[in-house]
Amino acid sequence: MSMPTYLGMPPFPSAAAAAVHDTQLRHNLTHATHTIRAKRAGAVAELADWEQLRQAAKAIKEHTLANLDSYLLRLEANVTAAGGQVHWAGDAAEANQIVARLVRAAGADKVVKVKSMTTQEIGLNEALAADGIEAIETDLAELIVQLGHDRPSHILVPAIHKNRSEIRDIFRREMPGAPTGLTDEPAELAAAARAHLRQEFLQASVGISGANFAIAETGSLVVVESEGNGRMCVTLPQTLISVVGIEKVLPSWRDLEVFLALLPRSSTAERMNPYTSIWTGVTAADGPRAFHLVLVDNGRTASLGDGTGRQALRCIRCSACLNVCPVYERVGGHAYGSPYPGPIGAIISPQLRGLTSPVDASLPFASTLCGACYEVCPVAINIPEALVHLRAKVSHGISERTVFHLAGPVLASARGLSAAQRLGSVASRVMGRSGQIRRLPPPLSGWTATRDAPAPAAESFRAWWKRTRR
Ligand code: SF4
C-alpha cells in the first residue's frame, strides 16, 4: 500500500501552518472555490428530486459494496467475454508492476494518460519512470502540474492553486514548442496545450485511464470529462490499460443513470459533462486492439470491514466537499499529504494507508466538523461521523468514550457538579485571566495546542441563582 510521491509528508498541522501564510495561494483558492461552490448550488437547485437522487445513489453504492465480490466477478466475466483481460492487484506495487509489464509487452516506452485519481494514489507515473517509461498527462490541469514538477491540490482541478500568469510561466519554461510571446489569456494557454498534446496523442501506442464507473452487467468502463483528451486516450492508442479501484463497480446501466445525473452537477456544475466515453472490451476495426483492466484493492477491502469508515468507498470523486470546506479553502490540497485532499482525503487516506504515519494520524483532525461536506455530498457520505470515528481510533485512551466515562460520576451528583464548578472557577482565575485559557495540562493539552479554550465563568449559574434569587 505504498504511495511513493507522498511518502514522508509532514503532519497536517505543520503543513497547514505553512500554507496559511501563502497569501497568493489563499487568494487563488478563495476565488476558485467560491466560484465553483456558487455554480454548483445553482445547478443542484434545478432538480426538484435532488435529495431522492442522492439517497438512491447511496443505496446503490451500499448494495454494491455489500455484494462487492459477486459484482466484481461478474465484471471480470463480462470484460473477458468482450475481449479484454482482467488483472487483480492487491496493492500499489503490484498494480504498478502489472502496468509496467503490459506497457513493455506492447513495445512502448511512452504512454498518454487520462486524469485518474487511482493512478495518483498508487504512484504510477513515478513507478513507470523508474522503469524507463514516460507518462504524459493529457488533462490540462494535470499537464500544468506535471510540467511544473508540482503535486495536484484538488481532485477535479489539480492546478487550482495556480493562477493564469503562473501557468503561462510554467508553459514558457517547460513546454516544448510553447509559442514565443505566449500570454496568460486562457484561450492562448489552451491552444498551446492542445498543440503540444496533439503530437503526443498521434504518437502514443499505449493509453492509460482510470474509470469513474465500471458496469458489471456488460463489462463496460465509463470516463466522464470536460476536455476531450480522455476520448483521445481511450480511442487512439493500440493498447488501452484502465487502472480502476474495486469500489468503482456498479451493477447495471440503470444504476449509471442516477450517477450521471449527480456527478456533473456536483463537480463542474454542469447539467451533463461534455464527454462521456464508454467502452466494452475490444471491437473489430475500431479503437484499441488490446484492452486490459487492472482492478486495484490497495486498502479498500480493509476499509470495507469498518462499518463506519466504509462509507468513504461510496465516493465518486466529485470534489464538492472540497469546494465548501473552510479548512481546505485556507490551506489548499498539498497540506493533506495525500492525492486525496479536503474532507474526503481526511477520511479516505487514513483508511487506505492506515493510521500509523504522523500525517495519516493527523488527517482526521483536519476539520471543524461543520458538516458542510455532508450537506453537499451527492452520495450522502457522513464525513463528520467518519472523522469522529477515525479520531477515536487515533486517540486510543483519551477517546470521547473515555472522557464521558470520567465525567459521568461528576455529572450524576449535584454535590460532584458543584465541586467541579468551584474547581473550574478557581482554575479560571489562575489560568484564564483574559477570558481565554491558552494552555491546558495533559491530557487536554492537545486542545490548546492549536486553539484557545474559553475560561469557565467565575461564577456558576447555580451559584448566581442562589445568590440573586433568595
Ligand atoms: S466525499 Fe462526496 S462530496 Fe466529497 S468528493 Fe466524494 S462524492 Fe464528492
Task: Write up this protein.
- The protein is α/β, with parallel strands linked by helices.
- It is 52% helix and 11% strand.
- The protein has 23 helices and twelve strands.
- The strands form three sheets. It has a six-stranded parallel β-sheet with strand order 1-10-7-4-2-3, sandwiched between helices.
- Helix 3 packs across helix 12 and helix 16 packs across helix 19.
- The mean pLDDT is 92.
- Iron/sulfur cluster (SF4) binds next to helix 14.
Structural class: alpha/beta
Radius of gyration based on Cα positions: 25 Å
Q: Strands across the major sheet, in which order?
A: 1-10-7-4-2-3
Query: Helix content range of the residues, please?
Result: 40-55%
Mean pLDDT level? 92
The termini sit apart by 67 Å
Task: Tell me the major beta sheet.
Answer: 6 strands, parallel
Any ligands, ions or cofactors bound here, and which? iron/sulfur cluster
- Total beta strands: 12
State which percent range the strand residues make up.
5-15%
Gross morphology is: globular
Spans where pLDDT lies below 50 across 5 or more residues: none
- Count of helical stretches: 23
In short:
With 470 residues, the chain is an alpha/beta fold. Helix content is 52%, strand content 11%.
Keywords summarizing the entry:
alpha/beta, six-stranded parallel sheet, binds iron/sulfur cluster, 23 helices, 470 residues
Record the SSE blueprint.
Layout: H1 12-19, H2 23-45, H3 50-66, H4 68-81, E1 85-89, H5 92-105, E2 110-113, H6 117-121, H7 124-130, E3 134-137, H8 140-147, H9 164-174, H10 186-203, E4 206-209, E5 213-215, E6 220-225, H11 229-235, E7 239-245, E8 249-250, H12 253-267, E9 275-280, E10 290-296, H13 300-304, H14 320-324, H15 326-331, H16 342-353, H17 358-362, H18 372-376, H19 383-395, H20 400-412, H21 414-431, E11 436-437, H22 445-450, E12 453-454, H23 461-468
Parallel strand pairs: 1-10, 2-3, 2-4, 4-7, 5-8, 7-10
Antiparallel strand pairs: 5-6, 6-9, 11-12
Helix pairs in contact: 3-12, 9-10, 16-19, 20-21
The protein binds iron/sulfur cluster (SF4).
Residues 266, 315-321, 344, 376-379, 381 line the site of iron/sulfur cluster.
